[in-house]
Amino acid sequence: MIEDMQYWLKEEGVDGFRCDVAGSVPLDFWQDAIPQLRRTKDIFMLAEAWEPELFKGDLFDMGYAWDGHHMMNHIAKGEKVATDFYTYLDERNAKYETDDIMMNFITNHDENSWSGTIGERLGDAAPAMLALEYMTTGMPLIYSGMEYDMNHRLKFFEKDSIPKTKGNMWPLLEKLGTLKNTHPALAESMIGAKVTKVETGNKNVLMFSREHNGEKLTYVANLSSKAQTFNAGEIVEQTDYMTNEVISSMDNKLSLKPWEYHLLMDSK
């Protein structure tokens, strides 16, 4: 197996591997294989797994944030509330080391085919959850078809096709991708992108900030199907990156429509 993987590095020039169900492969294989592969060239290793031991030392660089994905599904369905996402973040921080990169996602090939489309699972919550995917520490996943608002479950074991007409997700992905690649606050936590929770007094509102090199970005969202009012004393004439709208609290209160969200930056 190691020899076969070396072939793809040496002869075909690949830059790394996505290893399916990596947690079901004996750990000692990865401990033997990955250092040998890294001696051949600088590679990136993605595990379709989440077990913390897979990222120890110089093993895998990134894994799937399944717990975060499931939490977003639960919140969208009303089975959990927005502030439960804080619990997920705390558990994740306790479980993984600062240089472990988790891949955040609202859909992937398994979820689309077996659990449902974005529309089926998230409904009107999808844009807010997509923004949360980009704002959470780690890296976002774009699954083929989501940029075209794909609304059907792809066949898993036979050829199927995706639409090719740009949908509502396309401009959101463009803006969020630009933000992820240019804003210092969205740098990885390993180089100092501070994350700060903000208490709103409302369990249905999620609010946290990321800050790095003096630049700050705040996510605030009503993650429920009903309008919500909350404590928003920190929001004073800040600009929503997504809409360029200036947002300011009234008497330290702010109201949000169902599933409404903002990515706030200091107004200039």
Q: Would you give an account of this structure?
A:
The protein is an alpha/beta fold and 268 residues long. It folds into 2 domains: 185 residues, Glycosidases (TIM Barrel, Alpha-Beta Barrel), CATH 3.20.20; 73 residues, Golgi alpha-mannosidase II (Immunoglobulin-like, Sandwich). The strands form 3 sheets. It has a 6-stranded antiparallel sheet, covered by helices on one side. A 5-stranded parallel sheet has the order 1-2-3-4-5. It is globular, with a radius of gyration of 20 Å. The mean pLDDT is 94.
Helix proportion: 25-40%
- Specify the CATH architecture of the largest domain: Alpha-Beta Barrel
Uncertain runs: none
Which structural class best describes the helix and strand composition? alpha/beta
Mean pLDDT: 94
CATH topology of the largest domain: TIM Barrel
Task: Considering the chains and any ligands shown, give keywords for the structure.
TIM Barrel, 268 residues, five-stranded parallel beta sheet, single chain, 2 domains, alpha/beta
In short, what is this structure?
This protein is α/β, with parallel strands linked by helices and 268 residues long. The protein has helices spanning 2-10, 27-40, 66-76, 84-95, 109-115, 118-121, 126-135, 169-182, and strands at 16-19, 44-47, 62-64, 101-104, 139-140, 194-197, 205-212, 215-222, 228-231, 238-240, 246-247, 253-256, 261-266.
Task: Compile the SSE list and pairings.
Layout (H helix, E strand, L loop, with lengths): L1 H9 L5 E4 L7 H14 L3 E4 L14 E3 L1 H11 L7 H12 L5 E4 L4 H7 L2 H4 L4 H10 L3 E2 L28 H14 L11 E4 L7 E8 L2 E8 L5 E4 L6 E3 L5 E2 L5 E4 L4 E6 L2
Parallel strand pairs: 1-2, 2-3, 3-4, 4-5
Antiparallel strand pairs: 6-7, 7-8, 8-13, 9-12, 10-11, 10-13
